[in-house]
């Protein structure tokens, strides 16, 4: 029961990360210690899953086969995460938008603390630390910084959401792209939606409970998660340490973007708009939160076969 509550809260944290441009759901999954288990569970979904599900409608021992299918895909874990994520997305979207609009520096400072403290997790999971891993990390850092520099955040403006075949296709494709990005620490799915010009439309359909467009977008997200998770799983199986080093580099690179958003560099140069004390307190609070979660997970570790891939 306590484990289910813990996973529910972790799902809520993932949901919050999904609606914040510049904050990666993959980063939070790594920080919460569930990244590899999540990737492993998602990559098990394939066409065979649909066939096995269809077979449950006929034949004998359907209950036992359904239980085996449920356990084989770690559905209890995924379902609890999904419930927590959806609850936080719908409950916190207005609050997060208001905080970013009215108190950007302390808010992004809190995110900076979350990500900064989370970098320790991929470092711990690296089985070796060599020049190859260092190069992978540096490439990832450069990639994130270049991406943030080339495509800065766009202004919101007034957005009109329409119902048409082209709109349906756009939401589906963007759902695939965004969910794929969500699996990569340091890469924000919401920020990618901003780049694709659909972020504010997604917020509108969430606020308006537009079930049709929400369903189409969600279907694209599910498809992207299932497809991209298999690629990440393959990399973790064959190149575990370089992949973890690259993921850690993505997280470190995202700190550069978050530092600019909370005006850390400007403050150090004496050009900030004030409120540096509150921003620093929020950075500390974010770091303490992740440290507390890490401490909890260290005392309640899951079995080794659910913690890693390829080992």
Could you list some keywords that capture this structure?
76% helix, 16 helices, mainly alpha, 311 residues, single chain
Order of helices and strands: HHHHHHHHHHHHHHHH
Q: For the report, how would you describe the main beta sheet?
A: none
Instruction: Outline the low-pLDDT stretches.
Output: 154-158, 300-311
Q: Beta-strand percentage?
A: under 5%
Mean of pLDDT: 78
Secondary structural class? mainly alpha
Number of helices: 16
How does the overall form come out from the CA principal axes?
A: globular
Cα-to-Cα separation, first versus last residue:
29 Å
Number of domains: 1
The amount of helix comes to over 70%
Number of strands: 0
Radius of gyration over all CA atoms, rounded: 20 Å
Furnish the topology, listing elements before pairings.
Layout: H1 2-18, H2 25-31, H3 35-43, H4 47-55, H5 62-72, H6 75-102, H7 104-118, H8 120-125, H9 131-150, H10 165-182, H11 189-195, H12 199-207, H13 211-238, H14 240-261, H15 264-268, H16 276-299
Helix pairs in contact: 1-2, 1-6, 2-7, 3-13, 6-7, 7-14, 7-16, 9-14, 10-11, 10-13, 13-14
Characterization of the model:
The protein is mostly helical and 311 residues long. It has one domain (2-301). Helices cover 76% and strands 0% of the residues. It is built from 16 helices and no strands. The chain has helices spanning 2-18, 25-31, 35-43, 47-55, 62-72, 75-102, 104-118, 120-125, 131-150, 165-182, 189-195, 199-207, 211-238, 240-261, 264-268, 276-299. The two termini are 29 Å apart.
């Amino acid at each position: 029961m306590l484990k289910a509550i813990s996973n529910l809260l972790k799902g809520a944290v993932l949901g919050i990360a999904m609606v914040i441009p510049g904050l990666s759901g993959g980063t939070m999954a790594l920080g919460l210690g569930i990244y590899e288990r999540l990737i492993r569970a998602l990559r098990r979904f394939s066409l065979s899953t649909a066939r096995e599900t269809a077979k449950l409608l006929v034949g004998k021992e359907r209950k036992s086969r359904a239980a085996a299918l449920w356990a084989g895909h770690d559905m209890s874990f995924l379902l609890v995460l999904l419930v927590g994520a959806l609850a936080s997305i719908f409950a916190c979207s207005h609050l997060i938008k208001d905080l970013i609009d009215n108190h950007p520096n302390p808010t992004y400072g809190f995110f900076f603390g979350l990500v900064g403290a989370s970098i320790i997790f991929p470092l711990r999971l690296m089985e070796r630390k060599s020049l190859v891993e260092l190069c992978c990390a540096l490439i990832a850092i450069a990639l994130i910084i270049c991406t943030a520099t080339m495509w800065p955040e766009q202004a919101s403006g007034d957005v009109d959401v329409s119902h048409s075949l082209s709109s349906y296709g756009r939401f589906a494709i963007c759902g695939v792209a965004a969910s794929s990005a969500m699996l990569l620490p340091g890469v924000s799915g919401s920020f990618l939606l901003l780049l694709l010009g659909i972020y504010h439309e997604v917020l509108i359909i969430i606020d308006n409970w537009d079930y049709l467009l929400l369903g189409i977008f969600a279907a694209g997200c599910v498809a992207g998660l299932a497809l991209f998770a298999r690629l990440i799983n393959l990399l973790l199986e064959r190149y575990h340490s370089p992949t973890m080093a690259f993921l850690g580099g993505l997280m470190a690179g995202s700190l550069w973007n978050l530092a600019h958003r909370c005006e850390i560099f400007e403050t150090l140069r004496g050009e900030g708009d004030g409120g540096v004390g509150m921003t620093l307190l929020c950075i500390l609070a974010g770091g303490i939160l992740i440290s507390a979660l890490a401490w909890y997970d260290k005392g309640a570790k899951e079995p080794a076969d659910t913690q890693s891939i390829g080992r």
